[in-house]
Amino acid sequence: MNWLRICEITALLPERGTAALLPDGTQAALFPLSDGRVFALSNLDPFSGAQVLSRGVLGDRGGVATVASPMHKQVFALHSGRCLDDERVAVSAYPVRLRAGFVELLPEPA
Amino acid sequence: MIAMNGNTPKRVVVCGDGMVGRRFTEELRRRDPAARITVLAEESRPAYDRVRLSAFFDGATTEDLLVGEPDPGVDLRLGEPALTIDRENRTVHSAQGAYPYDHLVLATGSFPFVPPIPGADADGCFVYRTLDDLEALREFADGKKHGVVVGGGLLGLEAANALLLLGLAAEVVEFAPHLMPAQLDPAGGAVLRDHIARLGIGVHCGTAVSAVVPGPRLALETSGGGGFTTDLVVFAAGIRPRDALAREAGLALGERGGVLVDNSCRTSDPAIWAVGECAAMEGVCFGLVAPGYTMAEVAAERIAGGAAVFPGADTATKLKLLGVDVASFGAKEGPLEASYLDPAEGVYARLVLSDDASTLLGGILVGDADAYPVLRSAVGGPVPGRLADLLAKDGGERELPGSAQICSCNAVTKDTITAAIADGHDDVAALKKCTRAGTTCGSCVPLLKRLLDESGVAQAKALCEHFAHSRAELFDIVRVRGIATFSELIAGHGTGRGCDVCKPVAASILASLHNGHVLESERASLQDTNDHFLANLQRDGSYSVVPRIPGGEITPDKLIVIGEIARDFDLYTKITGGQRIDMFGARVDQLPVIWRRLVDAGFESGHAYGKALRTVKSCVGTTWCRYGVQDSVRLAVDLELRYRGLRSPHKIKAGVSGCARECAEARSKDFGVIATENGWNLYLGGNGGFTPRHARLFASDVDTETLVRLIDRFLMFYVRTADRLQRTAAWIEALDGGLDYLREVIVDDSLGVCAELDAAMARHVESYADEWAGVLDDPVKLARFASFVNAPETPDPSIRFTRERGQPVPESRPSPVPLGIPAVRS
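Structure tokens for the assembled complex are given below, as produced in the milestone run.
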């Protein structure tokens, strides 16, 4: 699988998620932080079944960068996809890199 | 019915559903759930809080005063008093039926004592005991100017307060040489009298009323030959136990009346018990609720097979009468007395000591009762400190011993409360529920707050892990330091990067204090999804759209525009509870297109998505209605336009009714206005939802200008000082002093902030701009309304509909996806 070019980094609002459509029809959520890091998780909120994680508020819990689902507020770690409110739950996390001002994502997580 | 253990369940009949009767049934149900309890009650209302009766004239409704919900497992027969007791056949008779019993409990309370003088039953003479008495008094007092209360004790002063609240001038006549003779000494009575005279109440002690002469105005003749002319008389000269039922059944009575009981609450008939004010406990009747509750517990324990005995009554009292603290505890007189009098401050304290001054025997406090909990718990033990310190005003700052009784109505000690706090009951509401403290007269609520503070629960005010401050404190920090961004706020006053709790709070505070669009630069990233897309997120990831329809008034042309838009975008439509129209099922990429058409047709944002003013609901008032007395639609429209866009700690709802029929349901709103013949009545602090609350009367018959000024200040003070997600009802309750304190702040300007609140609201009104128009005019903001950053033209395929009753609804989706193990590739 190849890295997929999503958009220019300047198209993203820092500290706010954005949804991207992947070639297989699934959805990813990109999270650009104000310190320059960018994370990507599945956009699917496993608790509600809606494609909404990209619309959650970003933040941190105990220093771990997080997003809170906008549906029912469960918090997920951005680097792993693990739900910090329910240890049985996790969403896919995608590798992300910056190339020449573009955000690229490696689809189809292992 | 046969119980599991083979015993037939006990049949228990209770006469009376007052506070004590109700407490008895609760206690018995707890101990013996199988008992079959029938309650025969004279009044048509279930048990209510008689201690707070005068709150009825201060905006409390009869529902507000009810003592909990009636237990559906108890056969409560309201309006069906017991008439006779057939002891031989163990049966109670009412007009409707016969009720056999294994145990009969008398909780018939007491009746007001009316002195046997000519004319005492004339028109215009009242007593002060039941809600029916109060309703009759209120009806008669309408349009009257002057009332006399006969009785200068606790009840009489309550009644005088009621007359003031009804807008009458009041005078109090007391037979004894000073006020509250049962609790106070002459010096304490004199200090109390000064306080009360300052409120404009005339006090005449050492005076007996000898006759009431009926007429258009009543003439009162007094013992000294003088007299009064007045519109009405309230007799509040004490109470007498209601023992007629027991007397006719041949039960033994106390020397001064009351059903004689032993220390197990048993009468001279072993199957019959008596509790509360009707009982003469070993010959003595108590007119306080606390000993009544204790008796209820003893009787319940006994009937359930236990061996409890009445431990003796604590007749200590502390109350706030007409705004004045009054307390007495222990012995009133003793071998040694120390007192302190400050006529200027209106403070009096007296301690009664053993002859060697080592043991505290009792005391009296007037004007300042802060030291009450410390002193009261020390009765019978060593004097807790230097006399001079104890008598001076700072006695209350001492630490309370664990045995100190915090709630005297329900006999709850400090130890019980600190244990409850340690168990995780971390606010006043939780403590009330767990311990019952503060649920009767409410005067100990400030002490509950203090104990919470002392237990370190104060940390609960911390907004989240990023800020140790409450919302109100953050508001002040942002305001005083002129902070303009979240980055600046968290760098200077918080830790970490923020979260979904503190970011939206900061966004709301910044919106209240600074002009500018809620989606401007960094502020966009702080918003919840609803505020981010200026629409309401629904369960399937689509959004709903609610244009503002001020006051619920809309032209046919605008209705047609909404209809056309909903049809063209295939949106589900529904009428909301706030008299507007909600359109569901819009994708984020459709929101700007929909709003372009709405804005072009003259609509603006309804802020249904925000913690902000939602709607001002109205009835048609004088515009159409035969009964309307004011133009409620115009006022509702004006108010909605004035406060639209105001960001607040929680949503704000409002209503305006054009007459007392209240068709707009204004009293279920944060602020509600009801038209009167002379202007408007303003009600504050109502809500629907999980815990419905009625708004309480704040101002009567005010003109529109005054009304708007009061609402301006109420809203701004709320916006500045409430906690996150605290509705106005909970906010008012949490204010130390409640609605009265709010009145001091926004009417009397006790904090000197009114000018600032007025200016803040003026700024809000001037700077209002429609948020949706602001998005449509700005390409940067518009670009955020795409479903996918890498495919802006592609609609979100996950939003799909089926149809129900002719409208689109979300397709049902497989319940939560299989929950996987984290999949990360390094």
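Residues 58 and 88 of chain A are 21 Å apart (CA to CA). The first strand of chain A starts at residue 4 and ends at 8. Further analysis is deferred to the final report.
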